[in-house]
Write the structure tokens for this entry.
Amino acid sequence: MKRVLITGVAGMVGSHLLDALLEKGYEVVGIDNLSFGKLENISGNVNGPGFKFYQVDVLDFETLKILGKDVDIIVHLAAVKKVGEADSSMATLMVNGKGTENVLEIAKMWGSKVIFASTSDVYGMSPDIPHREDGDLLLGPSMIKRWSYAVSKLYNEQMVFAYHKDYGVPVVVLRYFGSFSSRSSFTWSGGHIPIFIDAILKDEEVIIHGDGTQTRSMGYVTDLVDGTVLAMKKEEAIGKIVNIGNDEELSVIDSAYLIHEIAHTGKELKIKFLPMEEIFGKYKDIMKRKPDLTKAKKMLGYEPKVSLREAIQITIEERRKILHNTN
Ligand SMILES: NC(=O)c1ccc[n+]([C@@H]2O[C@H](COP(=O)([O-])OP(=O)(O)OC[C@H]3O[C@@H](n4cnc5c(N)ncnc54)[C@H](O)[C@@H]3O)[C@@H](O)[C@H]2O)c1
């Protein structure tokens, strides 16, 4: 059975991917520096059969080199995501830039395949909806830190393909669209759905950036995991970019209404609109984001299985238990 190294294993996607791979009988080595991920996310599997966890930074090349030996596939998920205008973009640029280079270097050294987690953010403000993998990308100015995440992932994609072309490293780039679960970070780094769920369950204000008419295509994490496992197996995916996610589109404000309806709290929905400039400076929010899944369907046999409504239901149920146990 194949040996897989997951970077960012204690994060939302990483921990669910770990569950799926162990269930399928893979051997997994997982690393995470626990900067965003949580040990609870992997506690059911830590040092159990088939899994070894190491608290290691992807910037630590020497340790990565040792752990990457005898690994068939590296699923590279460790990354630093969105930054607000008041934050530093250094970690995003360094971890995503140098960390990805380290992963590619050890894959080249030991002959492993790399599945790289890119993001729908790279489509930026592209007006071509739904977003196709071969479409042009439209990013904003460098003076706005919010763009550092998209820019770092786009640079990563170029580097992944350079290692493929120049050194023959087998690579697949997956452009993940937004997903969530009860293991998401319940801060802005985890996206709007988890944070709205928490606010509604705690009867707090739901803070909406801008007017809430911007749409997103969000889905349940298991759909990202399914796409990732398919990409690990399919030879045809090597050297390709594939969108993975759910193409069900909903505006940010309607997602607040939907969560409120599903949660049945018996309390009124409280919404507060916050001007975008207060968080992201002159960043122009992306008004529409929807994947074209044709390639994923044809090439991988991929099909998202969990509707947005079901994903919210599952996450609310699990989040309620977590909040109940911590109170
Ligand atoms: N979840 C989504 O909706 C989504 C959408 C698009 C792309 N992605 C990409 O998928 C990947 C996984 O996302 P996620 O939602 O699970 O995020 P996450 O923040 O939950 O997980 C990322 C993990 O990487 C770890 N990490 C960060 N810096 C590290 C470092 N220097 N060394 C080792 N570990 C480090 C964090 O502690 C965390 O556990 C990321 O690369 C992200 O950019 C996710």
